[in-house]
Structures are given as C-alpha cells and as structure tokens.
Amino acid sequence: MPVAFITDVDGAQHMLTGAAGDSVMQIARAAGLPVLGECNGSMACATCHVILDADWADRLPPPSEDEEGTLDTVFNLQPTSRLSCQIVLDDTTDGIRMRLPE
Questions:
Q1: Which DSSP helix (H) or strand (E) runs through 15?
Q2: Where are the domains of the chain?
Q3: What distance in Å separates the CA atoms of residue 93 and residue 49, rounded to the nearest whole number?
Q4: Among the listed residues 9, 84, 86, the one whose alpha carbon sits nearest the alpha carbon of residue 48
Q5: Do residues 78 and 101 make contact, with C-beta atoms less than 8 angstroms apart?
Q6: 2, 48, 66, 81: most buried, per Cβ within 10 A?
Q7: Homologous superfamily of 3-99 in CATH?
Q8: Could you read off the pLDDT of 10-48 as tens digits, one per residue?
Q9: Distance between CA atoms of 4 and 17, rounded to whole angstroms?
Q10: How far is CA 69 from CA 13, 38, 64, 81, 83, in A?
Q11: How do residues 37-83 score in pLDDT, each as one tens digit?
C-alpha cells in the first residue's frame, strides 16, 4: 500500500497509507487531519490545500488549469502548493511528503 507523509501545523508527522487510486485528501480525512475537502475533490474549493516538499514538487504531473485556478484562491499559496484531492496514490507517489498550510 502506498504511503504519504503529512506534517501538520504543529510539526507532527503523520504516516498515512492508502490503496492505489486513493487521493491524499481521502486518506488525510480518514485519518482525522484537518483536510476538509468540502467539494469532495471537484476542485471547486481549496480546502484540501497542501504544500509539497520541494523534492516532490517536480515528480508529479503539473497541475491542470482547473487546479491552478482553484489554487489562485488560496491566500497562503506557496510555489509547491497543490490540492491534495488531485494527488493520487500509486507506485510513483509512494513516500510522498507534504505539509499542511498554516
């Protein structure tokens, strides 16, 4: 099962596992992290915003136009910001690292 590491706003690191095909948003919500995902992954909100570790930013496909448009609404946007609903767990994302925005 693929693993994602998420650092919360207090600096605690959470190792989350999910099935291939799960989004990071899904596994973070299931683990009780404050990743709201109010639109359930339709990219209509940015309540699943995460900030990828720099090492991982270039390993993912670039964000779609829709994802970029939604990210433009984030007040604390970072160069490696992504929507966790668009990060899908599989062999290529196993071990991905990110943090929750403050």
A1: strand 13-17
A2: 3-99
A3: 17
A4: 84
A5: yes
A6: 48
A7: Beta-grasp domain (3.10.20.30)
A8: 999 999 999 999 999 999 999 999 999 999 999 999 999
A9: 6
A10: 29, 17, 9, 12, 11
A11: 999 999 999 999 999 999 999 999 999 999 999 999 998 999 999 99
